[in-house]
């Protein structure tokens, strides 16, 4: 997982949008705004003891799987645009990347966008009440 402050350009949402020079954001800074992170074993997620412990400790009892790629999602471009609309939830948002990669963008306490690049094995929890959005990267 990598994170950085985003530039202000309106280019393709799937580009990294790093400032020049890059301004990385640490895990501790993400934790300060309530974003939690784990790196797990996506190849054996059904039997992963660490994932089971996280689910039990945090009270997660529901799981669904989403294949988000052009080959498997009808109206793919439209759905991706919908995920990229800034929004907020009353509950946590929990996401575990089993394959591929994408970007979660979250607003910090100063209203600046932070881009979080998650890849295979990365699990993040966005706290309730944080503005965020999601897009895939150029790998789709």
Structural class: alpha+beta
Order of helices and strands: EHEHHEEEEE
Count helical runs. Answer: 3
Mean pLDDT: 95
For the biggest sheet, the summary is:
4 strands, antiparallel
- Report the C-alpha radius of gyration, rounded: 15 Å
Which geometry do the CA atoms define?
globular
Key phrases:
four-stranded antiparallel beta sheet, globular, alpha+beta, three-stranded antiparallel beta sheet, 140 residues
Structure description:
The protein is an alpha+beta fold and 140 residues long. Helices cover 17% and strands 26% of the residues. It has three helices and seven strands. The strands form two sheets. It has a four-stranded antiparallel beta sheet with strand order 1-5-4-7. β4 and β5 form a beta hairpin. It is globular and about 40 Å long.
Question: Gist?
Answer:
This protein has about 140 residues and is of the alpha+beta class. It has helices spanning about 25-30, 50-60, 75-85, and strands spanning about 1-5, 35-40, 95, 100-105, 115-120, 120-125, 130-135. It is about 15% helix and about 25% strand.
